[in-house]
């Protein structure tokens, strides 16, 4: 079977769950018991020893039941596709998946179906980058601007960003690319860490991890807030004492508050100089975010990890509702839609600081930020990628941090491939860990 005639032969899905809730890793005001999970997809081909495409979307626990079913519903659109044609134009599949009228009814372009589309589309980009022998960030950064524009769906956003706007931004963004690529390969992309700030951690653990973060080269940490104001004041005081005045501390409410409550709570924490307040209210409340932003300045407002699509991002930007735009590699419809969102942010001059952590989100989103730096925004000033120090060992190409920076990945693909041993151990419910865990629960009963 030649590479030019190879076709997609299977879309395999895996329900992968990790028992992170048992140590309160990932705990916040809205998610007190998160078992970090991935609805994981593998695109297989009949190209013999050719590469496979790997993708996933991040959930917590039982959400995987629904998410895996959604991915399976997309299978008929994918199986049988010509691999070369698909990799040459991932946007063609993206349009077909979004355009399925019966599945679109469940959105449109939001929620579980849209996340499923993102998982499949990301797997296609992983396959395309592997076939090109390049890491995805490099494939995107060196792609022709005209081709990148062809991958973007401008429907519903053309009042804010036209194809002509996008082409101009990408052409201008290429100036100095080679020099920036040398800097990226030498220095990496700046990160910040949330690892000290989970809501369930003790003050001692917070202090220890915050000091370690500074020692590791991070210039920004983040704390979860929103459960109890007195606790948050104490924890912010503790964190500020641990890191000193020269380190930024962001705070994250995970959508906990009404608008008035968000304003009052953020002002109560202002004495500790928080850099941004993240997700202060519902991610769908554009005008609410705008009201919070006006009221809490100079504290910045950041949001985006739960924003459903490019259309809501457009409105947040048009309404002046955010200072920091936070893309998520697996929340929207994959790389294609994130290209649209990055272009919108560039058009409005708003810095992008991605959401990461979870299962594999650091691995994915580093590629998008590095592309943004090299070929669009041209800067890392006031731009950082979130970093959380767990679960990376389950990937064949885990992120590498050096002096608080993401090291540019060099292996071909989207860094999305999980280790076979991890799939065998944490596949739910029959992986070796969960089978033993369930047996132990039955014995205890």
UniProtKB/TrEMBL annotation:
Keywords: Lyase, Magnesium, Metal-binding. Its EC number is 4.2.1.68. Its cofactor is Mg(2+). Pfam families: MR_MLE_C, MR_MLE_N. It catalyses: L-fuconate = 2-dehydro-3-deoxy-L-fuconate + H2O. SMART domains: MR_MLE. Residues 203-299 form the Mandelate racemase/muconate lactonizing enzyme C-terminal domain. It comes from the Bacteria. The keyword Metal-binding applies. SUPFAM superfamilies: Enolase C-terminal domain-like (SSF51604), Enolase N-terminal domain-like (SSF54826). Gene3D superfamilies: Enolase-like C-terminal domain, Enolase-like, N-terminal domain. PROSITE patterns: MR_MLE_2 (PS00909). InterPro entries: Enolase-like_C_sf (IPR036849), Enolase-like_N (IPR029017), Enolase_C-like (IPR029065), L-fuconate_dehydratase (IPR034610), Mandel_Rmase/mucon_lact_enz_CS (IPR018110), Mandelate_racemase_C (IPR013342), Mandelate_racemase_N_dom (IPR013341), RHMD-like (IPR046945). The keyword Magnesium applies. PANTHER family: ENOLASE SUPERFAMILY, MANDELATE RACEMASE (PTHR13794), MITOCHONDRIAL ENOLASE SUPERFAMILY MEMBER 1 (PTHR13794:SF58). This is L-fuconate dehydratase. It comes from Streptomyces olindensis.
